[in-house]
Task: inverse folding
């Protein structure tokens, strides 16, 4: 089977670690050797978080080698831009269309990259760039905490692993009360992938 | 069944499978999830102890009582526990004693980068280092067997990349520890096998055990010669690499064809096995993270191994670093052509952790910044008080240090007005003794105890100020103000942390008075208790861009695009998703421009 190196980046509190758990468990369920490594900030909210996940025949290091990321799943636009140097040129970027301002930006000490700068940098870094409306889908489903599973749904469309395997792993990993909601979130995310490809244009102005 | 487990989860599983019956520790990144996962097994008594020394003593007591016992800590907690495991090496016990330390190369969440492998040599007890989660689980059993065979505690040392990495683990059943496994110290369950000459480490008896400890090092080294987990993997004989832990996997990735000696037991090392390996290869190098711990032992055998002359002795030793250093040393060919890699846009804004919206610590640091007092800080989320926009903390070094440092300020006659700031969990951990010391030695100063009713930074563990234990039982709950009064502090005040005026008034009053004062800043962590009301709003007509509220460093308050026509400065805005209506910004706004929407309607 084709090996794959994933990098998940985001902001503390967005649910990236659960996403990395699910992604690792899906790889194991599909028959891969799997390792992953989370770099967690403090328990306080708002710091940058990053997870490495590797699927392969034999995986030794839990850290993706420098510049060898196949798929970058970013929960936030700035946290996608920060890690572009880790991508293979033929890699794929899947970004949640959301901006979360660090306090340095909200207090005016630094500026957030513009939509044009962000679009250009993403397109230059990878052949395939997808901008998923994760937060909007979460809002439509009435619970933005499913953001991580929405994004995994979109990511699933980039892999050859059957959606049933994904759903099975997700149902085991999320709290029993919200299994149905998360399964729905997965399918909504998967459907959204096709329409979220960023080709020649700049990402829409409505990014929040 | 194979499942993905983090290193910490795997150690907890190992404790279950290998018959640990008592587990104690103190939370600290990256070790905290071990005990949190142990607590899921009803077969094991587990607790968050008040500090690492108390936990280590508890573990020794449980092992004297014949139960396999485990102590968990992050790397700096070993310093606190060291007084206790050092006697444990002399006394041994009636069952296995496992010490788990999770080190933090790269200092992701620690004040120093100490390499705890040195504790093995200092205390003269064996240390083993797992390379992945499967080994983390298996080595719990290995360590407990070693501990019982040689009658001394054994260290299982991980690093952040083991603790917080996950890999597949084959699960097994719990094996109730068989008493027959413990020839040295068979003890009937629940009955103390009394042996004061062994268990009382008083000088005259401990001196008698001293030669046994020295002799045991050679016995363990002999055992290490045939330990299957210390293994040679022959490859290309041109280069032989001695390594351990997660660095073994990094090195195998960087040098896929070299010969390897993978050590599980890294002190004491097996001399014959190392010599056999060195004799079988043209050149020996040691690849290890942090200090040249293995390298020095190998060189003492007369083997000219290179290690720290090639690889750095500080920071995380990542695969890319190993590769770069190996190329520089001529061990690997340089890359034929530089791979074209993308570059992130320049000057991306940093995203540092910050006090959460609604954090009760915010009022204290906003006020301390304003009053410009010298602040002796301590370890917890409130460390963020050292960063912008607060820039309030002047010193911080170790758990509980703030109060001792403030006492030193007084003893030195420091002319600046100063305070110590310590959290509730840290106060229980190691703040009580220095406060008592101030009382007894007639010291003066203001001690601020931030009581948010949890051990917040490490993930909200209990402590004696909380009514629930790790196991979920109702726990004895101690009131911090009462405790300080009982210790002899005359001026003890409890202040609502969300009342900005009261916070400032009490800080000023206590610092001005000539005595010892304690202020308990009372306000729950947002993760403990949060009554979410309607978010606040800014009346853009009233806001004149004074920017005072920006100094609260609240993630919910942002710089709006609109500038004030008169001052030309940006007005404030409040993010309704992030705001938890803690009210602090409303209280400090001089223009009364911040309001709760319902107030506007009235």
Result:
């Amino acid at each position: 089977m084709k090996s794959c190196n994933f990098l998940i980046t985001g902001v503390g509190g967005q649910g990236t670690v659960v996403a990395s758990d699910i992604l690792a468990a899906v790889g194991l369920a599909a028959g891969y050797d799997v390792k992953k490594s989370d770099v967690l900030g403090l328990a306080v909210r708002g710091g940058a978080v990053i997870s490495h996940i590797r699927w392969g025949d034999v995986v030794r290091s839990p850290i993706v080698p420098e510049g060898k990321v196949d798929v970058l799943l970013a929960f936030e636009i700035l946290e996608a831009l920060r890690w572009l140097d880790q991508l293979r040129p033929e890699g794929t970027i899947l970004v949640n269309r959301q901006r979360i301002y660090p306090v340095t930006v909200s207090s005016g000490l630094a500026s957030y990259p513009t939509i044009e700068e962000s679009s250009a940098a993403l397109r230059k870094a990878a052949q395939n760039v997808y901008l998923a409306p994760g937060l909007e889908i979460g809002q439509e489903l009435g619970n933005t905490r499913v953001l991580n599973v929405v994004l995994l749904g979109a990511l699933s469309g980039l892999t050859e692993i059957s959606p049933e395997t994904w759903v099975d792993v997700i149902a085991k990993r999320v709290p029993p009360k919200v299994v149905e909601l998360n399964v729905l979130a997965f399918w909504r995310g998967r459907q959204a992938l096709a329409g979220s490809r960023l080709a020649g244009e700049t990402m829409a102005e409505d990014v929040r | 069944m194979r499942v993905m487990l983090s290193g910490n989860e795997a150690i907890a599983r190992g404790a279950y499978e290998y018959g640990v019956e008592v587990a104690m520790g103190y939370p600290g990144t990256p070790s905290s999830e071990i005990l949190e996962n142990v607590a899921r097994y009803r077969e094991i008594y587990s607790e968050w102890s008040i500090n690492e020394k108390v936990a280590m003593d508890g573990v020794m007591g449980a092992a004297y009582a014949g139960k396999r016992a485990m102590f968990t800590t992050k790397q700096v907690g070993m310093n606190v526990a060291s007084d206790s495991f050092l006697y444990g090496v002399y006394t041994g016990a009636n069952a296995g004693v496992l010490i788990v330390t999770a080190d933090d190369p790269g200092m992701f969440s620690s004040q120093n980068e100490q390499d705890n492998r040195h504790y093995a040599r200092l205390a003269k007890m064996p240390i083993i280092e797992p390379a992945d989660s499967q080994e983390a689980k298996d080595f719990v059993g290995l360590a407990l067997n070693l501990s019982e065979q040689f009658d001394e505690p054994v260290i299982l040392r991980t690093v952040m990349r083991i603790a917080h990495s996950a890999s597949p683990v084959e699960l097994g059943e719990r094996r109730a520890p068989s008493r027959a496994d413990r020839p040295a110290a068979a003890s009937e369950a629940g009955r103390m096998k009394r042996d004061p000459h062994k268990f009382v480490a008083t000088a005259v008896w401990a001196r008698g055990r001293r030669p046994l400890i020295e002799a045991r090092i050679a016995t363990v080294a002999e055992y290490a010669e045939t330990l299957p987990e210390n293994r040679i993997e022959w490859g290309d004989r041109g280069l032989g690499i001695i390594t351990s832990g997660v660095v073994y996997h990094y090195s195998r990735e960087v040098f896929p064809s070299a010969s390897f000696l993978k050590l599980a037991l890294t002190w004491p090392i097996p001399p014959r096995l190392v010599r056999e390996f060195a004799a079988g290869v043209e050149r020996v190098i040691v690849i290890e993270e942090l200090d040249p711990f293995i390298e020095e032992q190998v060189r003492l055998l007369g083997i000219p191994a290179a290690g720290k002359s090639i690889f750095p002795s500080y920071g995380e030793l990542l695969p890319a670093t190993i590769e770069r250093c190996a190329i520089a040393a001529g061990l690997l060919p340089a890359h034929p052509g530089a791979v074209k890699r993308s570059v992130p846009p320049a000057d991306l804004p940093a995203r540092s952790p910050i006090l959460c919206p609604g954090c009760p610590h915010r009022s204290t640091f906003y006020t301390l910044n304003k009053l410009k007092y010298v602040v002796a800080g301590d370890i917890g989320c409130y460390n963020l008080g050292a960063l912008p926009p607060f820039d309030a903390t002047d010193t911080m070094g170790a758990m509980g240090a703030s109060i001792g440092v403030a006492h030193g300020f007084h003893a030195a006659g420091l002319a600046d007005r100063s305070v110590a700031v310590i959290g509730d969990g840290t106060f229980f951990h190691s703040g009580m003794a220095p406060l008592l010391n101030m009382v007894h030695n007639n010291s003066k100063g203001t001690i601020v105890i931030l009581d948010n009713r949890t051990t917040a930074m490490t993930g909200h563990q209990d402590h004696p100020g909380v009514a629930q234990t790790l196991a979920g039982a109702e726990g004895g709950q101690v009131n911090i103000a009462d405790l300080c009064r009982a210790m002899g502090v005359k001026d003890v005040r409890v202040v609502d942390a969300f009342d900005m005026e009261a916070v400032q008034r009490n800080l000023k009053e206590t610092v001005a008075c000539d005595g010892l004062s304690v202020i308990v800043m009372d306000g729950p962590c947002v993760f403990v208790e949060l009554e979410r009301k309607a978010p606040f709003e800014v009346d853009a007509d009233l806001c004149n861009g004074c920017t005072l509220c920006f100094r609260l460093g609240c993630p919910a308050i942002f710089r709006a695009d609109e500038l004030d026509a008169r001052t030309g400065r940006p007005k404030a805005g409040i993010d309704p998703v992030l705001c938890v209506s803690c009210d602090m910004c409303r209280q400090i706004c001089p223009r009364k421009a911040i309001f709760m929407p319902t107030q506007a309607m009235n």
Observations:
- Residues 376 and 395 of chain B are 5 Å apart (CA to CA).
- The mean pLDDT of chain B is 94.
